[in-house]
């Protein structure tokens, strides 16, 4: 197998980059996958090499061939200047934010962010003397009015967690750029395959790699990719804070990355089919999926995104909690769980009203978030059909 240069890899298609990025079998006796390197101590041949850190690897926390293979593969995929791995998605969020904020700074945080991100802002960043203002995801150019002299960062998440709003990312980025703010984006839902963060002016792209990168619900993992502007500060903070990920989890993430393209296409196709079916049901008020024609964010999604993932939400008709429980508790193929992105389908009842401040969440009925896995769509729809019958029976009574 001919060795391919990193510059040449950048010219290939996304699926090819997923397969070959960060992979060189000739370095590992011909084995296709980079092995798992367990280790803390790295021996140096001489005192000079030890003290000058001239070796490729100097200490386990600073990286090994397994972590380097993942970082190279991710850079090949998203076109970033540098990548760090974190032990969870929330750790990736906190690492990105702390790399660009200091006491006295002001952060603009999208109101529809992942709830643990909001908790980190309110409990940790506030305690460190960093002020946070939450903004409406649909604010567009109005974000300009919220930027202050000490605003150092603007944080985006697309679509909104659970409620699935699509912000106008180019408008918000353009306003933030005029004030030299660092722009952060939680890109977990789209991955770099379906949204080009750096092509849209983002400085720090965050992914909960636990989701689609790992893809099999068997490892906690986070990733932060940086632009040239943001990379030096991210690299320094990451090293200074002592973060590292166990090699087994990195290996699982790298293995998952190789098949993410085909998995994500199947998640997208199946989710759209299930979402369209749910939109036809009388028990469902609204389907919150930007890939659907009638969704409020569809035009922006179609303009800026290349695809959709398997995650979306619905708003049911008004009903007692017992009806929602009857709908979900007896589902055969949908587990009840907080994560998503794995091969299995999941369902989660939700209510955003307690963790919104710049917007109001009052949809008029119970919310349920679905992740559509890799099962046969006909089986999933039959399962949901039976669940909605249980919901309807208790709603009427």
From TrEMBL:
Cofactor entry: pyridoxal 5'-phosphate
Pfam family for this entry, one: Cys_Met_Meta_PP
SUPFAM superfamilies from the UniProt entry: PLP-dependent transferases
InterPro entries from the UniProt entry: Cys/Met-Metab_PyrdxlP-dep_enz, Cys_b_lyase_bac, Cys_met_metab_PP, PyrdxlP-dep_Trfase, PyrdxlP-dep_Trfase_major, PyrdxlP-dep_Trfase_small
Annotated catalysed reactions: L,L-cystathionine + H2O = L-homocysteine + pyruvate + NH4(+); an S-substituted L-cysteine + H2O = a thiol + pyruvate + NH4(+)
Transmembrane feature ranges: none
Biological or metabolic pathway of the protein: Amino-acid biosynthesis; L-methionine biosynthesis via de novo pathway; L-homocysteine from L-cystathionine: step 1/1
Sorted UniProt keywords: Lyase, Pyridoxal phosphate
The keyword Cell inner membrane belongs to this UniProt entry's keyword annotation: no
Family: Belongs to the trans-sulfuration enzymes family.
NCBIfam families: cysta_beta_ly_B
PANTHER family according to UniProt: CYSTATHIONINE BETA-LYASE-RELATED
UniProt protein name: Cystathionine beta-lyase
